[in-house]
Amino acid sequence: MSDTVRLTFDGAVAVVSLNRPERHNAFNDEMDARFFDVLAELHERPDVRAVVWRGEGKSFSSGRDTAELGVRAKGESDLEFIAAGHAKTKLLFTMPVPIIAALKGWALGGSFERALLCDLRIAAEDVRMGLPETGHGVIPDSGGMARLFQMAGHGVATELALTGRIIGAEEAHRHGIVSKVVPLDALDEEALALAHEIAKRAPLAVRMARSIISSLATAEVERSMHEEMLGQTIVFGSEDYAEGKAARAEGREPKFRGR
């Protein structure tokens, strides 16, 4: 079993810890598979009433490991690759209990998007969040743009998606992206305390409240993800995407041409 994602329990609270600290918990294929295996396991655990998602080391997660950007299984099309990723990501929507993301250091790209799909986010004072995808010739494709639109409005979502600008904890708090900002050394304690506060409440009532909130928001995010899948499939076949990959490999700025 891979140790890239660790699952522990503190009473009725499950703690999911990303464990590639030397890479700022960037997701490679091994970590991705393990993460979603853990989520699937938690779907079947009636003794769990809340989940804390955190990262070992200095960061929550810096997103996709750039060493594996564009990697595909043999014979897998771009559309199939993205659809498979979306099917796994939707485990965050169907989780029967709330998920609290404890953000610190870097929280970027697809990992930031997945955190946005969780129920709650607590940020350490040092957190730096962003969607850098367009700088690599691709688009955010895990529902994060829609969720940012819902939380912070059109202007903020557009700016972050188009410019890749990094935001800090206080700005994220002003926009409602995170519910609380705490000192770094208190992050895990605060996230666990919040999870236990939820876990001690009536589980059926918690589930029904989450279901109502989901009915207001999740359908639009899923519709957006379908559009992202189609858009990203087009982007993957573009010259700009190839140029972005080449620029990363050669350690230079990309020269995008819009085709």
| Succession of helices and strands | EEHEHHEEHEEHHEHEHHH
Give the overall average pLDDT: 95
The gyration radius over C-alpha positions equals 18 Å
Largest sheet entry: 6 strands, mixed
Q: What is the number of strand segments?
A: 9
Find the CATH superfamily: 2-enoyl-CoA Hydratase, Chain A, domain 1
Write down the overall geometry: globular
CATH class: Alpha Beta
Architecture overview:
With 259 residues, the chain is of the alpha/beta class. It has one domain (5-186): Alpha-Beta Complex (2-enoyl-CoA Hydratase, Chain A, domain 1). 47% of the residues lie in helices and 15% in strands. The chain is built from ten helices and nine strands. The strands form two sheets. The chain has a six-stranded mixed sheet with strand order 1-2-3-4-6-9, sandwiched between helices. Strands 5-7-8 form a three-stranded mixed sheet. The radius of gyration is 18 Å and the shape is globular.
Please give the structural blueprint.
Blueprint: E1 5-10, E2 13-18, H1 29-43, E3 50-55, H2 78-89, H3 91-94, E4 99-103, E5 106-108, H4 109-116, E6 120-124, E7 128-130, H5 144-152, H6 154-163, E8 167-168, H7 169-174, E9 180-182, H8 187-199, H9 203-236, H10 239-250
Parallel strand pairs: 2-3, 3-4, 4-6, 5-7, 6-9
Antiparallel strand pairs: 1-2, 7-8
Helix pairs in contact: 2-9, 4-5, 5-6, 5-9
Concise structural overview:
The chain is of the alpha/beta class and 259 residues long. The chain has helices spanning 29-43, 78-89, 91-94, 109-116, 144-152, 154-163, 169-174, 187-199, 203-236, 239-250; strands at residues 5-10, 13-18, 50-55, 99-103, 106-108, 120-124, 128-130, 167-168, 180-182.
